[in-house]
What does this fold into?
Amino acid sequence: MTPTRREFGAFVMAGVGATAIPSTLLAGAAEARAAAEEVPWGGPLAPDQPLAKAYDDAARALADVDDNPMIRWQYRVWCQTGYRSPGSAGTGQPVDQLVDPATDFVSPKGFLYRDHVRPMPAGGVQFLDNAWYFGTDFTGLVLVRTPDGLIMLDALTTPDDMRTQFLDQAPAAGLDPRDIRHVFLGHHHGDHVGGANLIREEYAPRAKFVMGQPDAAVIKAQRADLKKHKDEYTEEEYRARLARLPSRIDIEIEAYPGHTVGMERIRIGRRTTAVAMLAPGHTDGQMCVIVPVVHQGETHKLVVWSGNDNIENAAQYAVSADFVQGLAGQEGADVFINTHAYQGAVYSHLRALKANPSASNPLLMGRAGVQRHIEIFGNAHRALAQRLIDGTWKAM
It folds into this structure.
C-alpha cells in the first residue's frame, strides 16, 4: 500500500531519526515509475499535488532571499528541470538550447552539462586564500592547505588525469603533493577515486585515505572481483583497471547505530580537524566534509559536497540534507563547493575568479546562505520523492 502524503511528509521530516526508507515508500515510487513507463522522458508529467507543491514553494522562497546564483541554481535544477538532459530524455525528445553555456548549463527545460567539458585554467583556481580547485568543468578535486599539511578532497578519474590536471599544475599554485596528509574520497564512482593510488604510491605514502564505509566496501568488492576475473583482461587492461581502484581505505565513516547517516571528526594534525559526514543519496556511502579555510585573513568553514543526482533516492537525500545542514550550522560553515564543477554552475564562477581574483565569489555564501543552500536541496528532494509517489513525475 502506498503511504499517504501525510505519512511520507512525517518520514522525511524525521531527519536522522529515520532508520531506513520504508518498503511502502519504495513500492509507491516503483508504482509511479511503472505507470509512467510509456512516457519516453524524465521529469514532470502532471501538475504537483498539494504536498509536493508545498515543498517546492518552500524551496523557491529560500532561493529568492537573495541573488546568489549558486543558491538559486539549486531550486532551478532540482525543482524545475528534474535534472533531466538529452541523454535521459529519450530518443526524439530533445531538451531546448542553453541560454548561456559560458555561465550555466541549465536551460528553461533541462540540464545539458554532458556536452560541455573543458579543463580548468592552467594552475587550477584559487577560490580562497588556502583552497584550490583542479580538474575540468565536469569533475575535479579540491586542495586545502592547512598548518598541518594539505587536504585533498576527491581524486579525479584516472592516474593520467591526476598527472595532467593536478600534479603537473601544482607547482604553479605553490603546492607540493608530498605534503598531502589526508585524502577524502566523496563516493566510490570512478570519476572521484581514479587518481588516488598514484597519490599514495608516488607522493604521499603516509597519507590517510577516508571514505564512507558502504562505499569502501564497494571498492573492496570491485578489487576482489577484478582479481577473480583477471584472466578476462590483457595484462595492460588489468593493471589499468586496478590502478583506478583505491588499494586501501584507512578511515571508514560509519552510520550511527540504527541510522543511515553518521559523522566522525578527523584530526589532520595538532591544529586542524575536519568533519566527515556519511550522507547517502548519490551512493550508499556518499560523504560530505567540512574543513577549516582562510580568506582575506579571516577563518571560515568550507562544505565540500561530492556529486549529486539520483532522483530515485530522493527520500534518502532529504534525510541526508537535513543531517548535513544541522552539522554545517553547528560548525559555522559559510562556504560551499561541489567537486562536480558543473553543479551550481561552479565552473563559471571559478573561471571568473581566475580571471579576476577580486570578482564576486558566490561560494562565500555566509552561514545563512549555506543553510539555505542545503535546505533548498532537502526540500527539493522531498518534493521529488513525493512527486514519484503521486505519479506526477517519472524518475530517470
User: Anything to note?
Assistant: The CA atoms of residues 186 and 306 lie 5 Å apart.
